[in-house]
UniProtKB/TrEMBL annotation:
Keywords: Flavoprotein, FMN, NAD, Oxidoreductase. Its EC number is 1.6.5.-, 1.7.1.17. It comes from Pseudoalteromonas porphyrae. Pfam families: Flavodoxin_2. This is FMN dependent NADH:quinone oxidoreductase.
Length: 224
């Protein structure tokens, strides 16, 4: 049975009194989840809306607790790390991770970055060994599939696009994904939101279609 971890990062709700304020990224993610569930039973579905319920920012005390050996951690330090421990446990058990996020100021929302900061943790999701030379960090998890669903107001952030040099959302997610244990990444993007023209409608329609098709594909693979 598949364990699916779903992380939404938009500060907007999926549905609002004014539909113009509905979160695009959340609704495309919903399409993926709904289609997957139609095709395949999900053994465990874990959902976190970090946009609405943001994780704690890490602090000096958090870092001190992380680098204190396990047998020497105080009760207070263990308490400080409870949130991080929970997030890491959810990532560890997931087979598929869905992350939906808008692009804010050409990067990821602060809330999503806070989630990653809680999850990417030494001796939990990666280890460190200087014997590896210039690349001492090594992921401890593996075998996971990541679906990245993004929404942007502008366009051309893809490789070779006119705004590739301004794209700090998906490239950042790709870099961090290996510390989630991701080996396969699928990307779905909706663009042109601020232009509100036919190009946006076409991009949005394409994103929904890709979400449906990918969910069907992955559910079929899970059933094999």
């Amino acid at each position: 049975m598949t364990t699916l971890l779903h992380i939404d990062a938009s500060v907007r709700a999926a549905k609002n009194d004014n539909p113009d304020h509905d979160s695009i990224s959340k609704n495309i993610a919903r399409r993926f989840i709904h289609t997957f569930r139609e095709q395949q039973d999900i053994g465990e579905y874990i959902y976190r809306d970090v946009g609405v319920n943001p994780p704690s920012f890490i602090t000096q005390e958090w870092i001190g607790a992380v680098f204190t050996p396990e047998h020497k951690k105080s009760a207070q330090q263990k308490h400080i790390l409870l949130e991080s421990d929970q997030f890491i446990a959810e990532v560890s058990k997931a087979d598929i991770i869905v992350i939906s996020s808008p692009m804010y100021n050409y990067g990821m929302p602060a809330q999503l970055k806070a989630w990653f900061d809680q999850v990417i943790r030494i001796n939990k999701t990666f280890d460190f060994d200087l014997a590896r030379g210039d690349f001492p960090l090594q992921p401890l998890l593996g075998g996971k599939t990541l679906i990245v669903i993004t929404s942007t107001g502008e366009f051309g952030f893809e490789q070779g696009g006119i705004r590739e040099h301004m794209s700090h959302l998906v490239p950042h997610l790709r870099s961090l994904s290996k510390y989630l244990g991701v080996t396969t990444i699928h990307e779905i993007a909706s663009e042109y939101q601020e232009f509100a023209d036919a190009r946006h409608q076409q991009s949005l329609s394409n994103a929904y279609s890709q979400a449906t098709e990918l969910a069907q594909q992955l559910s079929n693979m899970a059933a094999e």
